[in-house]
Specification:
The protein is an alpha/beta fold and about 250 residues long. The protein is about 35% helix and about 30% strand. The chain has 2 domains: about 5-85 and about 160-245, P-loop containing nucleotide triphosphate hydrolases (Rossmann fold), CATH 3.40.50.300; about 95-160, no CATH class. The protein has 10 helices and 10 strands. The longest helix has 16 residues, at about 175-190. About 40% of the residues are buried. The structure holds adenosine-5'-triphosphate (ATP). Adenosine-5'-triphosphate binds near residues 37, 41 and 45. InterPro entries: AAA+_ATPase, ABC_transporter-like_ATP-bd, ABC_transporter-like_CS, BCAA_Transport_ATP-bd_LivF, P-loop_NTPase. GO terms for molecular function: ATP binding; ATP hydrolysis activity; branched-chain amino acid transmembrane transporter activity. This is Amino acid/amide ABC transporter ATP-binding protein 2 (HAAT family). Belongs to the ABC transporter superfamily.
């Protein structure tokens, strides 16, 4: 399968700190690729580097066959977003004082009113994230943590995107909300949207991932199929420090 996004030997420095040490990563078109790894492994830095929020000091980032990052490449974050990549950061970037509706409208670059957003697309978002419809006119700050995450992802999908980068959508959510999130992401997967998803929750990763890349210490130390990693306890233990007990 051809890669929509490809990172080759990507290094990132943040100030004096050398954080990414040659990241190689392939995100095939139409798949959900999980990016796993312990705290501090470099997952968020990888997403930020793809978006051009941190510049890659070495290596190369290609999106749909075009260089968007790396030494000598001058694509800005707005350029990268316009090329069709949406980023849902862990902080979500929601405007708490604005309504759910206004939050969605602000994310639709081309639309001046909600009527200008493709109604089919809006219906699709309502099906995937029922809370968006239910709390349509509520200030977004009143939503629960999980509902805010759903809104953040819906914002990223309000216009067609080629690739979605999502950072730990299950973080801090109660188990029932995690299940809702998994169900919504499964719906998204069914549309063959290409996704790179950072997760700490291995149960979520196992349910959703087609491919998987595991990071450690600023580089990718394993890449393969999620189904293989899900069946291999020894590999999980070695790469992620998971024990059998953590699967219960
Ligand atoms: N702004 C920054 N300045 C200095 N160091 C940073 C900065 N942001 C991240 N780092 C360091 O870079 C390393 C990778 O961090 P990153 O947030 O990418 O890891 P992560 O795998 O996403 O971890 P987590 O799961 O805890 O979010 C960590 O050691 C972190 O302390």
């Amino acid at each position: 399968m051809s890669s929509l996004l490809s990172l080759q030997g990507v290094h990132t420095h943040i100030g004096a700190y050398h954080i990414l040490h040659g990241v190689d990563l392939e995100v095939p078109a139409g798949e959900l690729t999980m990016l796993l790894g312990r705290n501090g492994a470099g997952k968020t830095t990888t997403l930020r580097t793809i978006m051009g929020l941190w510049p890659a000091s070495k290596g190369r980032i290609d999106f749909d066959g075009r260089a968007i990052g790396g030494a000598g490449v001058k694509a800005s974050t707005p350029d990268i977003a316009c090329s069709g990549i949406a980023y849902v950061p862990e902080s979500m970037g929601i405007f708490a004082d604005l309504t759910v509706r206004e939050n969605l409208l602000l994310a639709a670059r081309g639309a001046r009113s909600i009527e200008q957003i493709d109604t089919q697309r809006l219906d699709w978002l309502f099906t995937m994230f029922p809370a968006i419809k239910k709390f349509w006119l509520y200030p977004a700050g009143k939503l629960s943590g999980g509902q805010k995450q759903m809104l953040a992802i819906a914002r990223a999908l309000v216009e067609p995107r080629r690739l979605l980068l999502i950072d730990e959508p299950s973080k801090g959510l109660a188990p029932a909300m995690v299940r809702n999130m998994v169900a919504a992401l499964r719906e998204l997967k069914a549309t063959q949207t290409t996704v790179l998803l950072v997760e700490q929750n291995f149960m979520v990763a196992r349910e959703l991932g087609d491919g998987v890349a595991v990071m450690d210490n600023g580089s990718v130390v394993h890449a393969g199929r999620m189904a293989e990693l899900a069946q291999d306890d020894e590999m999980q233990q070695r790469l992620l420090g998971l024990s059998l007990a953590s699967h219960q």
